[in-house]
Structures are given as structure tokens and as C-alpha cells.
Amino acid sequence: MTKADFLNALAHRLGALSEIDIARSLDYYEEMIDDRMDDGMTEEEAVAAAGSPEDAALEILANIPIPQPETVPQKKKPDGRRIFLLILSSPLLIVYFSLVLCLFVALWCVPIVVWTLFVSSVAAAVGGIIAGITSFAEGAGTYGFMYLGLTLVGIGLSILFFFAAVAVTRAFARLSVHIAKGAVAPLRRKGN
Amino acid sequence: MDIQMKRGLLEAAVLSAIRDADSWGYQIIKDMKPYVEISESTLYPILRRLEASGCLTVRTEEFGGRLRKYYHILPAGRERLEAFREDWKEVLAVYSFIVREEKTP
Fold first, then answer.
1. ipTM of this model?
2. For chain A, which residues score pLDDT lower than 50?
3. What's the CA gap between B73 and A154, in Å, rounded?
4. Are A53 and A148 in the same domain?
């Protein structure tokens, strides 16, 4: 057996050790064989004097701790029991989410009403201008002033309802996010 | 021989082999040979243990176009040798009692 054969056979049997320990062990035996050859032995004799690679590996493995693989946190496998419960409870979940949806629709009625008031006020103002101009054109000045007055009221209400609608929409958007989080929270697993 | 006892003896012998001067693996085996036969495979774990326990240190130097590891004894190694000597005084005392001549009745 040549030195290379010996070292290959030894390396093959030390696979469980860390790379550093394998390299150190191979260096040690290589040095030993080289020293014996320097001392006058042939390569074959020097390798034979080192013993068998099997015995060398056994001795090393028995005395050098094998590195333990680090415990990597494994991805949680889908929990069968949890999936089963989820299927069983699915009709209840449908009812639950329907209720949450109803709540959202009911809530969003308020901003919709305020926006509708804004649109109506704008329409009233525009209608008032048209009606006023038409009345003046037809010579009905009294009606014309009345319509212009209505237009001013419409413009005022439009401004008022516009800001009210924006404020209500923002407030309800925040409230919706809050409710959505609250609705999902009971379904989440603790610690996730 | 008891494995623990043999291990202790061999560790002390290896420390003794590098006590006066730094040495290398094959030289340690040759120096010990007249007293105790030790193989490469036996020596290697002993050197690793002694290194791990702070009794010796290893350095690599070039020799004849290749690298060779030299082992150097540390103070902890010398203390270990001293402790070994003290322990063996007691062992020898017990030994002399065990092997004393039988009294003829």
C-alpha cells in the first residue's frame, strides 16, 4: 500500500469528524510515514509500520469527539389535528366571516351617507345656478334670487359635507383595520 | 494492564519525552521504544488529549521540504509530571507491600 492509498483509506473512514480534525489526522500520519521513510524505510514498509487505516481510524474516532450537527429549528409541519379541526369548524367560520362582513357593510353606510350628502349639496348648488340663470333670463327675478340663495346654501353644505366625509372616511378606515385585526386574532395560533 | 492506568502511564511518558526538548511524533515513539512500545495510532490521541488539556502545545515547522509538527511541554504538563512522580511514590510503597516475600511458617 502506498502512502496515498493509506491516507485516502483513512480519510474515507474519518468522514464523521470535522474537516479540521480530518486534516490534522491525515497530516499526523503523513508526517509519521515520511519520518519513517527518512529513517531508511521504503514507502511500503513505512506504511505497514503505521498499521492499517481501519485501526488508525478506529483509534482516532474512539478518542476525538465527533461534531454534533447543530440543531436547526425545523419548519413547523402542518399540524394534522389543526387542519381536521379547521375543516370541522368551516361552517362556523363561514358564519363568522359573514357576520364580520355585515359589520363592515353596516359601518361603511355612515361614510357613504355623508358622501351622498356631499354629492347632493354639489348637485343642489349646480342646479341652483342653472335655475337662477334661467329665471333671470326669463325675467322672473324673485325666483332667480331664491335659486341663487339656494346655490349659496348648496355650496356651503358641499364644503361642510366634503370635510365631514373625508374625516368620517379616515376614521372608519382606521376602525375597519382595527376590527379586521380583532376578527382574525382568535384564529391565529399563539406564538405565531 | 488496566486501561486507565495504562493511559495515565503513557501520557506521563509522552510528557517526559518532550520534557527536556521539543520533539516530534516519530522521535517520541523512538525515544519511548526502549521502555514502552507505542504505535502511531496510540500516540496520536494521547497528543491530542494533552494538547486539549493544556499540557503541551503544537507548532508546525518546515523540515526537509515538508512540514513537521513539534510538541512543546507547557507548565501544566510539567505539573502533571510532578504529580505523577508523587503519585507513584505511593504506588511503589503499596507495590512493595504487595510483592513482599512470603513468611515461612
1. 0.85
2. 191-192
3. 101
4. no
